[in-house]
Amino acid sequence: MTTTHLADRLAAVERRIAAAAAECGRSQSDITLIAVGKTFPAEIIGQAFKAGATDFGENRVQEGVAKRAAAPDARWHLIGPLQRNKARAALEVFDIVHTIDRFEIADRLQYLLAERWPDRRLEVLLEINLAEEPQKAGAFPQDAANLLDHALSCDSLLVRGLMAIPPWTDDPEASRPWFRQLSTLRDQLEKSTGHDLPELSMGMSHDFEIAVVEGATMVRVGTAIFGPRSVRK
């Protein structure tokens, strides 16, 4: 895949974001496009950066470690579950973590930041498991308030908003109620805590336009930019 090809794909996704934003009276500049390079090599990430991508997302810490050097000036997002033993490596690579889902992870990041990066505040989002799917990470909606209170008590964390992955379906429209639920939950948490939560990370290649209409400020797009992923062995 050439840099020109990636530039064309990025531009096509940006046009779709702009159209969706216009549909609901928003500006395209309100939405961050996160290029998700899961399974693609560092070379492709470097080409995407040259093609104009400014934000990259990875599901696995080790992939971020392997690829960050290909786009060192980009903003790197951890969008997959974070294990306690990978927290130190995550802090060395990622600029924002979308997947705080339990006290233990917030506490581990707080400890490491205070120990090694005392002047740094890490931007984080709380991951919410809206459908309470047992196979997925994320705090259940009824636990979100307690998780937010705890994360706010960690002074090295800057809690910016919420993230969710709706149940998978081939029908993009089926994601709309889940996106609305996340937006509503965000509004409730802001009201109860008085803390601004401006970011909503929701929407992927098949449903990001609906996510934008429902208030997404970050969309995580892989296939529409990079093409079909290879299967991990």
Q: How would you describe what is shown here?
A:
The chain has 9 helices and 8 strands. It is of the alpha/beta class. The chain has one domain: TIM Barrel (Alpha-Beta Barrel), CATH 3.20.20. Helix 1 crosses helix 2 and helix 3 packs parallel to helix 4. The two termini are 22 Å apart.
Give the key terms.
alpha/beta, eight-stranded parallel β-sheet, TIM Barrel, 233 residues, 41% helix, 8 strands, single chain, 16% strand
**Gyration radius, to the nearest Å?**
17 Å
Q: Which bin fits the share of residues in helices? A: 40-55%
> Main sheet: which strands, in order across?
7-6-5-4-3-2-1-8
Helix-strand topology string: HEHEHEHEHEHEHEHEH
How would you summarize this macromolecular structure in one to three sentences?
By secondary structure, the chain is an alpha/beta fold.
Write the layout of secondary structure elements.
Blueprint: H1 3-23, E1 32-36, H2 42-51, E2 55-58, H3 61-67, E3 75-78, H4 87-93, E4 96-100, H5 103-116, E5 122-127, H6 144-152, E6 157-163, H7 176-193, E7 199-201, H8 208-213, E8 218-221, H9 223-226
Parallel strand pairs: 1-2, 1-8, 2-3, 3-4, 4-5, 5-6, 6-7
Helix pairs in contact: 1-2, 3-4
